[in-house]
Amino acid sequence: xxxxxxxxxxxxxxxxxxxxxxxxxxxxxxxxxxxxxxxxxxxxxxxxxxxxxxxxxxxxxxxxxxxxxxxxxxxxxxxxxxxxxxxxxxxxxxxxxxxxxxxxxxxxxxxxxxxxxxxxxxxxxxxxxxxxxxxxxxxxxxxxxxxxxxxxxxxxxxxxxxxxxxxxxxxxxxxxxxxxxxxxxxxxxxxxxxxxxxxxxxxxxxxxxxxxxxxxxxxxxxxxxxxxxxxxxxxxxxxxxxxxxxxxxxxxxxxxxxxxxxxxxxxxxxxxxxxxx
Amino acid sequence: xxxxxxxxxxxxxxxxxxxxxxxxxxxxxxxxxxxxxxxxxxxxxxxxxxxxxxxxxxxxxxxxxxxxxxxxxxxxxxxxxxxxxxxxxxxxxxxxxxxxxxxxxxxxxxxxxxxxxxxxxxxxxxxxxxxxxxxxxxxxxxxxxxxxxxxxxxxxxxxxxxxxxxxxxxxxxxxxxxxxxxxxxxxxxxxxxxxxxxxxxxxxxxxxxxxxxxxxxxxxxxxxxxxxxxxxxxxxxxxxxxxxxxxxxxxxxxxxxxxxxxxxxxxxxxxxxxxxx
Lengths: 277, 277
Ligand SMILES: Nc1ncnc2c1ncn2[C@@H]1O[C@H](COP(=O)(O)OP(=O)(O)OP(=O)(O)O)[C@@H](O)[C@H]1O
Ligand SMILES: Nc1ncnc2c1ncn2[C@@H]1O[C@H](COP(=O)(O)OP(=O)(O)OP(=O)(O)O)[C@@H](O)[C@H]1O
Ligand SMILES: [Mg+2]
Ligand SMILES: [Mg+2]
Prior knowledge:
2 copies of one chain form a homodimer. The first copy, chain A, is an alpha/beta fold. Chain A has 12 helices and 8 strands. An 8-stranded mixed β-sheet of chain A has the order 3-4-2-5-1-6-7-8, with helices on both faces. In chain A, strand 7, helix 9 and strand 8 (about 230) form a beta-alpha-beta unit. In chain A, helix 1 crosses helix 12. The first copy, chain A, is globular and about 55 Å long. One adenosine-5'-triphosphate sits at the interface of chains A and B.
């Protein structure tokens, strides 16, 4: 049965998409059958991999959008989520986003089971994958909530900056709400430090603060009781900002750069971790 | 009469707050009477300057929040916006944010003149200042729209990354809509490049793309017809990420670092620019 991980942080530009694509690519290269779900109307996972965001004009299911909006049986005819899947790379599949997806939060607002749409949609294809990674938009709206309800684990990419720490509490409270009301299985796996300036004291202090916070949460009845700062931190590396403009993963663009090394190591960490209780 | 500039970009973490605080501080140090307006429920300008976000419990006007929600005459009694102003530094005043401001978008949604609340609120105090800089949240919602309706100029901080370019079109269309429907005086002054990795080819290519786009817009009937990529780009400098944790501007924290130099130069650029037509 797969590990389903939502990558969320309502702050923008913190490395969610870069982590989903690069970690996903690393897991695929290690032989894991990996599915990426692009839940963001910006369609950056889709763009990063060089896939055309599939704008539907004939109503054919083409993207996460259709899965989320489609009326489940018995009101609508079932659609096969496999029809939306694009084979992006070897072992790396993608349910792409389309940029109309922005309207979706309004369209879904009154739908029955509006928080469970993604969970229902992927129920039948879960068994085909070892890892399902969900890229969330920078908000705590309906798209992110669908990601959190569909997932078992949450990973939060964030920067090792003072202002980034200010938002963590609110993030964790959202996860707690979801775990209490909609998805009791949901737990926080941890934080990925993205764009890490490894030689600065500031970054080290922020990391120490975060680790201290998680250590103090052990044994509490909270969904982050087993959360960690994941290793390694992902160092700032211009190759990671460049490769999306070529529609390439960092491993295709520069397999020996720091970005490739760090994400390969992070994949290794994920593969060797004990399961969350 | 003051220059009123909104700093907007719906993408998160691109340097809006850092630019408002650092540019504001630079202008104040050059002797300009400068007012900063913190429109973001994250209250990061307020935090950065070491000001307590003023949570009101007795209804006394204390923050941008109260200005925006207050019923203007004749329905409500007029409140003096000066009552919300905090003197943060010499020549540097602040209308702080409070973190309940997040609810404001819902509260304001049905209010009369809901896009003009900020413009009305600052009408009487404009003459006290040379510069009014408005920090917008990372969204195109009601708070940002209030910022755009109150302003004469828009500056967009952004990163010199491929993915950052993808959002520029939408940003400019929003400004165009506002200038057509709500604020005909609104024009785009330009882009501030934040967290600029000056030695990489990628950054240079992104800057060239942006400049080419603006050059091609000269003479068109669009609010960015006179927009530029402002100089200098603001180099990535860890001091800019560190100083907020001490409640200090970068000039107080390290007056000779690259961050201080670049923002001082940017202030100089703003002071010597010809007015927008
Ligand atoms: N380790 C890194 N080194 C250098 N640049 C990076 C790194 N990680 C991400 N970037 C760049 O920083 C920018 C923001 O990253 P990314 O798009 O992954 O963040 P995000 O959290 O998904 O943003 P959004 O909230 O807009 O979805 C992108 O231009 C990306 O290419
Ligand atoms: N030139 C720079 N060099 C290094 N760090 C920077 C620089 N500019 C900003 N930062 C840091 O990057 C992070 C994001 O910057 P900032 O908060 O100014 O962006 P923002 O656009 O206001 O974000 P938000 O959308 O959340 O309001 C902060 O931690 C800030 O301290
Ligand atoms: Mg993203
Ligand atoms: Mg900000």
